[in-house]
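Annex B. Sample input.
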Amino acid sequence: MAPRWRSGNWTTHLILLTGVVVFAFPVYLAVVGSTSDLGTVSRGELGLTPGPYLVRNYVQTWSTGSGERIQGTPVRRMMTNSLIMALTIAIGKISISLLSAFAVVFFEFPLRMFFFWMIFVTLMLPVEVRIIPTFKVISDLGLVNTFPGLTVPLIASATATLIFRQFFLSVPDELVDAAKVDGAGPLRFFWNILLPLSTTTGAALFVILFIYGWNQYLWPLLITTSQQMDTVVIGITKMIGTGEALVDWPIIMATAVLAMLPPVLVVILMQRWFVRGLTETEK
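Annex B, continued. Sample output.
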């Protein structure tokens, strides 16, 4: 068995390590800044080692979200809002996409492909194009500053529908015929056969869609006006403010570090499923 680490790969690994350092160094500086005091950061005297205020800054950020210069929303509240939004969007997109792809592939009804291509065409419409009419509808329904208003307009996903459709098309006809012979109806076939086969694909999509929902900025900025409904991304923006005199960098950096943890944990915990979902070709 050939060794996995050859001397000829040093150049490749050096390039990869350099890329990791370039991307990770700003994150490390944010961690260091979140453990320092305001004066040290404001004077530009931030070092490369963590400061002595780690516990104080993170407790203050988590419980109040306020510092010496800013009065914010507790980060625990903003992260709860972001978590609800991200989970609802991810689970909602996957659920609707599974059902729509199942209907398009396994049922014959008039204009079936027309409706599929209408779903697919929505990929050509960016959020900015439809955001004003969407806001009008949500506003008329009285869903401003509510979780349904935050999540429902973002639940439909043409991309996930296309991915599940392509996967369902790879299911052998013999498997469908065998299920019919065994007396399985459409819902039983979907629940007992298709869903278990779709686990890895769904897991890969969940990681992508969770991060998509967690990082949403434009729609929450438009649909929420109450601090109690702020997501963590919106909260960080409000903390920065518009003037240097209002910036409390240790609190902002601590908030940014905390905001990175849920997506990182999702990727780490579901890494194996994520890779399998992207690389497996035979189900």
